[in-house]
Design goal:
By secondary structure, this protein is of the alpha/beta class. The protein has 14 helices and eleven strands.
Length: about 450
Amino acid sequence: MNLVMIFDLILVDEGHHNTAASWRQVFDRFPEARVINYSATPTRSDGQLMEGHVIYSFPVIRAIESGYVKRLTAKMLSPAELTYIDKSSGAERVIGLEEVIRLGREDAEFRRGIVMKDSTLSSIVDCSIAELRRLRSESGEQRLKIIASALNIDHCIQITEAFRARGLRADYVHSLEGQEANNRILDKLKNHQIDVIVQARMLGEGFDHQYLAVAMVGSIYANLSPFVQFVGRVMRVVEQNAPDNPVNRGSVVFHAGANVAQRWSDFRTFSEADQNYFSELLPEAENINFDTKGVATKEVGSTMPLQPVDIVSETGVMAEEMEPIGKEAAALIQQLAETGISPERVASELRRIRPTRQDRRQARRSALNDRIQKETGGLLARCNISPGGKSLDRSYQKTNFQWVLAELNHRINSSASQQQDNRQNFTLDELDRAHQAIDDVVRELEGELKGG
């Protein structure tokens, strides 16, 4: 039988991959067949352009108007001024918005600092939480969630800690965590047991969870395709064919200094309608009028000017420093109860506005556990030691992974506190010292294992 004649037509989903060698083998095997490619983006993550001629384009704005995908709002953050360390001189520099935008466009290290340093990352996290609460309130759908992008596994842990410290249920997936661990987190997402999912290039093409509503951009995008794939995670509608339903709204949050706004220029290969849509959603940062709180808002398809949104910031007030409840506060609580607002909701809102010291301590401790787990795997790999073997434990009871994990935990705990080895009772200061001790303790143990 002549296999060449079996197929007259080949349909390719995610057609921007049609330049890959694996697809070339298929096309070469059936040279007479016609090929139709379908794709939301014309380029691959490596910048290669999809092969072929455009015969039909369904613009994003029409998909929104038809209720096939969510209507998006872009939230762009920028400070009135920003202080950073100039590497060339080692001195502090205070810069305004124009310089923030310029450095974000020209300096890769500056861009990474924007999404990785707590002072700026906190603003992005806080705005993302504010957006989630707004969308939940307007739609009445409490299952809406945040998806955040990160640079690497350490950044995943950092962002997850930031959300947990603010009282949200957050977790992360990463290729280094292994399929079983990632599946447990994705099951929690599916079962609405978390509010935030953090990932580094994990949940891309084909991933579908319609309750993702806020995309927090915490990573750097060199070109358009991976950015659009990420934003696409929050574009799945909850209610089909209902373009005016508030539940079919999404929001993208990013910092002007991360150079995300320039991604619009990569849409030149799209149809004119798509270019208009994304250039409207992601305008040049220089053309944006930020409000006094450093936020600009633009909704696609709207002729209204940019509308400001408040940033919910962490005040740093610890629980023990809060004023006791007096008569005035008791009267307010009674008024809230009479309007039907539950005590649980009041407590949740207070934790959002003023995260308790316990919230911060739990998030810091959880992040420490995650980091030590990651360092254990990396140390064993660098030393060429099998994680499942038992060569390190003289009693042959623990696996090498369990032995190294226990050893790192003990040494890090000892470095952080001379009084106790029980991390459950560590203060915030002790947890900070434990985080700072990780690199030195890992290097010390690695040297011993390689030397032994």
